[in-house]
Amino acid sequence: MRRLLLALLLAATPSAAGAFSYDEGIDGDLSGDRLAPTALLAALGSNTLSATSVAGDLEYVHLSLPSGTSLASLVLTSFSSTDDVAFIAVQAGSAFSVPPASATPGDLLGYAHFGSGSLAGGATVGNDMLDDLGAAADAIGFVPPLTGSDYTFWIQQTGPQPFGYTLDFQVVPEPRTGALVVMGLIALAARRRQRNAPRP
Predict the structure, then answer these.
(1) Is 125 exposed, middle or buried (0-12, 13-18, 19+ CB in 10 A)?
(2) Phi and psi at residue 161, to the nearest 5°
C-alpha cells in the first residue's frame, strides 16, 4: 500500500527544477567534517548522490527538505566494490552530534549496512533502505516517511577497498499534502467519468 501511495504521489508531482544530482567525481569530495557536512537541498522527485568511500574517508551529508515535503524512500541504485558492504546512519538536524569513535546506536535516528553482502540485509541494489534505517536495533528509530526539514547522514566504508555507490533520495509532498493530491486526482477522475457517462 505504501509503495502504491508513493507511486501515485510521484506520478502526481513531477520532479521540480532544483532536485540535486551530486557526483563526488565532478562536484568535489563530500565533507569529512561531521559539524560541517556537505549541504544538499532536495526538491520533489528523485535526488541522487554518487560517491566513493574507503577506510578513513568519512562522509557527512546534510539533507534539507523543503517545507511541505518528506523523504519517502532512500534507494541504493548502484554500487561498485570488491567489498560487499558499507555503513550509513542518520540523525535529525544539520550536523552530526557525535564522533564516530564514540557513537552508539542510541545516538542515531537509524543506521544500516548496504551493498550486496549478507550484512546488508534488505539494503541492497534496488531496495528502499529507509525502513531498514528506521528499524535498526537500539536506535531511536522511525517509521518512514521522514518529515521535518533537516537530516544529516554519515556514510562510511571501513575496509581498504574503495566502495562506490549511488543513492536516490525520493522526496514527495508531506502525507497530508499527498493525501489531498490523491483525493483531488480521485475526484477529478470521478468528475470526468460522470461527464463522459451516456445520458438518457
Answers:
(1) middle
(2) -90, 130
The grid cell for 158 is 571501513
Asked if 96 and 66 touch (Cβ cutoff 8 Å), the reply is no
Q: Which residue has the cell 518512514?
A: 144
Phi, psi of 186 (to 5 degrees): -65, -45
The cell for 5 is: 501511495
Cell of 122: 534488505
Contact by Cβ (8 Å): 111, 87: yes
> How many domains would you assign to the chain?
1
State the chain's maximal CA–CA distance in angstroms.
Answer: 76
* pLDDT recorded at residue 138: 98
Residue type, 200: P
Averaged over 103-116, what is the pLDDT?
97
CB 24 within 8 A of CB 50: yes
